[in-house]
Amino acid sequence: MYRPLAYRMRPRTLDEVVGQQHLVGPGKIIRRMVDAKLLSSMILYGPPGTGKTSIASAIAGSTQFAFRTLNAATDTKKDLQIVAEEAKMSGTVILLLDEVHRLDKTKQDFLLPHLENGRIILIGATTENPYITINPAIRSRTQIFEVYPLSESDIYHALEQALQDSERGLGKDAITIDEVALTHLARVTNGDLRSALNALELAAKSTAEIAGTIHLTLAIISECVQRKAFSHDKDGDAHYDVISAFQKSIRGSDPDAALHYLARMVEAGDLASICRRLLVIGYEDIGLANPAAAARTVNAVLAAERLGFPEARIPLATAVVDLCLSPKSNSAYTALDAALADIKDGKAGQIPDHLRDSHYQGAEKLQRGVGYQYPHNYPDGWVNQTYLPDTLINTHYYQPKDTGRYEQALHQRLNELQKRKQE
Fold first, then answer.
1. 379: cis peptide before it, omega within 30°?
2. Over pLDDT 70: what percentage of the chain?
């Protein structure tokens, strides 16, 4: 039976695990658990191809327990029952449950007592943030460990091992690979070892021998490597991490970082998220400091949506640099949030009678609209009268910032009106 190179090269012990030394290195938590023979259920979460299954395999290889693999999305409760029966017979089974965030209530209810009595040691694997996607009942019975994308040097070392290993890898084949090609493969897969090994095997198996040697060049590797874009589930954890970093980079006025995160979303083809986030940023982070920048962002978004990729990247890049280097102010929406907080706290109060609707018969008898002064009847469009409910008199929600000329002018106007009101 054919097994892919990535499968064959899975670690048999913790010493063979590539990367993730914060978990499996000397003195680290998973290493200590294995050494002490005190395994407990855990959830490993992180990007694809970073070693979640490898760690589970290595844990099983470092113990005498049986090791079984299921998928929470596709395998049934009956499959779990088979594992549970085996655990009763053998004592303990290590169960790698892939896509553990997809575990439904029926399977979860069946699994919980077996986790509690220790018959099944669960190693859940997921690309999603378990604190968001996994039921608290499962979380409370597991330890949660995050795995990280592998470094370029980690992948380079693993590729070298695969090329040299004559038992499980490609060591029996007469393969030579250019240094630049190996470096490119380690770099372009962006921390995904599975993709790197799959590309290496495809290159080796699809390249004809010349004089008894398979020579892998940069051109061959480039053709074989699966394009590892920063694509992600739009409801997933990675998606929101990129969006968060994107907005915070613009808010922090760092155009280089903002363009980097923009590039990730462009590479993923996520035009909708980019456009929505830019519109939010234009008003949330720039706001009254530079309203013209927000207006330009709206135009850039309209142009991007009309153009589509790849040309959409041009107005998007323009908007990102514009917003990054613009003065920032969140004074308007934070003022609204303060007003909302008062309303939620029961401080709304009654609308003053002179502001209430008077466009019906009998309104005057109820004092609706009586005493209202029409500001346009006054020389500069302002007259001193009360607008807030009595319970909120002298409340000031809007606190202007002097980070842009436009809001500086608003601040000056506000000070003039407040001074006249006091007089």
1. no
2. 97
